[in-house]
């Protein structure tokens, strides 16, 4: 099997140390993470990791099964680029003089849908979103005109065919409703309960 780019989507509880445990699983298997993003999901209390790697499908399948064994990981999906809608965001710092004096640079920024974030006397910061190839092409062009600084954010992705984790959580809650939380009646009565 040939290696290709996969996007792994993890739905997790929001717990301390989870990023370290996830990256440890990748490290032990000697798999390089190309991009990692974490954010809240559409379900309150559930977080979403979006991880991009280059691997064979067999390795990714095994990796997702291993990830799901982690107590804080609720579900792990893996998808190719055709099965998701995805974007990356980038910020570019360009000398103000270049943008005001070179019509080509202004057209280029418009062509890539860049919007202005900060305007200063010495530089302008632009933001754009798109696929990695588009961001790379714009970066390459701006380098010819004195690009001062560039940063790209991690991939964010939505699975095309999935109904999302929200419906799965609701289904699970119907099948196996959680027990009502019972308050400890002796809580805050330490001195009355324990006497010496």
UniProtKB/TrEMBL annotation:
<comment type="pathway">
    <text>Amino-acid biosynthesis; L-valine biosynthesis; L-valine from pyruvate: step 1/4.</text>
</comment>
<dbReference type="InterPro" id="IPR004789">
    <property type="entry name" value="Acetalactate_synth_ssu"/>
</dbReference>
<comment type="pathway">
    <text>Amino-acid biosynthesis; L-isoleucine biosynthesis; L-isoleucine from 2-oxobutanoate: step 1/4.</text>
</comment>
<dbReference type="GO" id="GO:1990610">
    <property type="term" value="F:acetolactate synthase regulator activity"/>
</dbReference>
<keyword id="KW-0808">Transferase</keyword>
<dbReference type="GO" id="GO:0005829">
    <property type="term" value="C:cytosol"/>
</dbReference>
<dbReference type="InterPro" id="IPR054480">
    <property type="entry name" value="AHAS_small-like_ACT"/>
</dbReference>
<dbReference type="GO" id="GO:0009099">
    <property type="term" value="P:L-valine biosynthetic process"/>
</dbReference>
<dbReference type="GO" id="GO:0009097">
    <property type="term" value="P:isoleucine biosynthetic process"/>
</dbReference>
<dbReference type="InterPro" id="IPR045865">
    <property type="entry name" value="ACT-like_dom_sf"/>
</dbReference>
<comment type="similarity">
    <text>Belongs to the acetolactate synthase small subunit family.</text>
</comment>
<feature type="domain" description="ACT">
    <location>
        <begin position="7"/>
        <end position="87"/>
    </location>
</feature>
<dbReference type="InterPro" id="IPR019455">
    <property type="entry name" value="Acetolactate_synth_ssu_C"/>
</dbReference>
<dbReference type="InterPro" id="IPR027271">
    <property type="entry name" value="Acetolactate_synth/TF_NikR_C"/>
</dbReference>
<dbReference type="InterPro" id="IPR002912">
    <property type="entry name" value="ACT_dom"/>
</dbReference>
<comment type="subunit">
    <text>Dimer of large and small chains.</text>
</comment>
<keyword id="KW-0100">Branched-chain amino acid biosynthesis</keyword>
<dbReference type="GO" id="GO:0003984">
    <property type="term" value="F:acetolactate synthase activity"/>
</dbReference>
<protein>
    <recommendedName>
        <fullName>Acetolactate synthase small subunit</fullName>
        <ecNumber>2.2.1.6</ecNumber>
    </recommendedName>
</protein>
<dbReference type="InterPro" id="IPR039557">
    <property type="entry name" value="AHAS_ACT"/>
</dbReference>
<dbReference type="Pfam" id="PF10369">
    <property type="entry name" value="ALS_ss_C"/>
</dbReference>
<dbReference type="Pfam" id="PF22629">
    <property type="entry name" value="ACT_AHAS_ss"/>
</dbReference>
<keyword id="KW-0028">Amino-acid biosynthesis</keyword>
<comment type="function">
    <text>Catalyzes the conversion of 2 pyruvate molecules into acetolactate in the first common step of the biosynthetic pathway of the branched-amino acids such as leucine, isoleucine, and valine.</text>
</comment>
């Amino acid at each position: 099997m040939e290696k290709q780019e996969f996007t792994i989507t993890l739905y997790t509880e929001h717990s301390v140390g989870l990023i370290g445990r996830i990256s440890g699983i990748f490290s032990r298997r000697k798999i390089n993470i190309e991009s990692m993003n974490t954010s809240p999901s559409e379900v309150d209390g559930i977080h979403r990791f979006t991880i991009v790697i280059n691997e064979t499908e067999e390795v990714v399948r095994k990796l997702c099964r291993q990830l799901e064994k982690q107590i804080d990981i609720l579900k792990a999906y893996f998808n190719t680029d055709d099965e998701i809608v995805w974007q990356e965001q980038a910020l570019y710092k360009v000398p103000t003089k270049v943008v005001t004096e070179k019509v080509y640079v202004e057209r280029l920024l418009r062509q890539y849908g860049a919007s202005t974030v900060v305007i200063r006397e010495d530089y302008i910061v632009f933001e754009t979103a798109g696929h990695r190839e588009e961001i790379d092409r714009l970066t390459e062009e701006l380098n010819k005109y004195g690009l001062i600084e560039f940063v790209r954010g991690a991939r964010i992705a939505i699975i095309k065919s999935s109904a999302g984790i929200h419906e799965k959580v609701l289904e699970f809650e119907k099948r196996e409703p959680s027990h009502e939380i019972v308050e400890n009646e002796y809580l805050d009565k330490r001195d009355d309960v324990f006497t010496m």
